[in-house]
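Forwarding the complex inputs:
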Amino acid sequence: MVAVLQYSFRAYIPGSLDPGGFTFDNFIALLKPLYARVFLDTVWICFLTALFTLVVGYPLAYALVFASNVAVKSFILVTVVTPLFLGEVVRTYSWIIVLGNNGFINSMLLKLGLIDSPVQFMFTQFGVVVALVHVTLPVMVIMLAAALSHIDRDYQKAAESLGAGPIRTFLTVTLPLSGPGIVAGVTTAFAWTFSAFATPQLIGGGRVNMVSNLVYQLGFASFNFPFAASLCVAGLALTFVTLWLLRLAARPIEKVGLH
Amino acid sequence: MPRSPFQRFLRIVGVLVVLAILGFLILPAVVVTLAAFNDRAILSFPPQQWSWRWFAKAIEYEDFRAGFRNGAIVTIWASSIALLIGATFAFALDRYRFPFKQLIETILVSPLVIPHFTVGLGFLILAAELGMARGFLVVIVCHVVLVLPFVLRSVYVSLRNIDPRYELAAASLGASPGRVLVTITLPLLLPGLVSGWLFAAILSFNEFTASLFVTSQRTQTLPVAMYNYVREYADPSMAALSVMYIVATALLLTFANAFLGLGKVLNVERSH
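Prediction (whole assembly, two chains):
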């Protein structure tokens, strides 16, 4: 059993042990502007996605936890969780239909006379980010809701009884206390986005490239497995560094959360 | 609690925001459903004529059928093996102290943060180095590694929730450790095992990125077959298949929510 796991970890490293012997050439090649750009794009897309997912996910998590009606609660829960189990392909395909040139949004806008020609959503960074937010939203909501549900209600009541308005209560009590959930949600969203493949592949259509697409191209179009593997290792290192930086930046927040 | 007009206003804004977000979540599913029932092969909104023919076509399409069969084989094997390994490790991690415990735990949960394309490529290279054909074995092993963290967590949480006094009582009444395990621990653990298996099965059945790397034409799972279809054709049978997928998943989850309490499983229920 352990051997299986061990294997899977040994398998990530062969990138540097290519058939021709040990070399750093693959990693040096990564510094070429072409590849460096893909890395920068990937981090930027991950960042945007994590940010928007947080902004969109927070109200939903709040509603999920504080809704008093059980039916409303389970409706929100099932709506949020269902996409999580649908898989990347189905969801990405759905977004192609929504965003495509003959797609839902463009048809509606044309019909309403708001635009004269279809707006280009496909093959743009915007389209990719919208679909990715949809993909990461469930995880974000679950993590935020878990954090929100463990806040002692008495803190909010105390704030209110001391005369704080709803906005002030939220900003000074609820929001800081949900800090750990925000950190966990953002880091997970970031890692998931980095891992996404079908969405940038199909919606990006070769014009928005992420590391995952590059790895696939190198592996299956040019059969350069060592280089693909070194990309994976570099990507992994990048993810860990980013996540570590996020944690570091978030440490003061977590302290508040632990009170 | 008395509500000021301002609070009522905030509440209305909040409800509207939440509705808009739910709309964003549901929009693709609704649009796909519309497209699936559209009689014409080209996308158009709103559809002029309704028909079921894309559903029939999707069910009859050989690649989807083969993908479904392959997916079922991989899912059942992978989630069962993962359950066995995961439950053993969860039990060991919870009950015993041993060297490198922390390290083993980290290794076991690491597929959570490692991108799936990395795992897929890793297994592909590994299989090539060992001279293995790209058969079911590689796909199943790969899926076991990917779903293991989820099984581990699910079993671990339910192990934590078992009152150790039951086991102590059984032991003090003279039951052997084996008997305690079979008559006390395993039955109490059953919900955790079932939900762990179900979770693993759903994830494995839907896994795409790593599968794309390790499957071949002969072993491609349903998501891979769907991906290839989307790249080659544009007719709505893919939409029809998506609708079936969405309906099946939503039903399964509503069912699970009613009987198992999804909120508890996901730890989002309020504790007070």
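The two ends of chain B are 19 Å apart (CA to CA).
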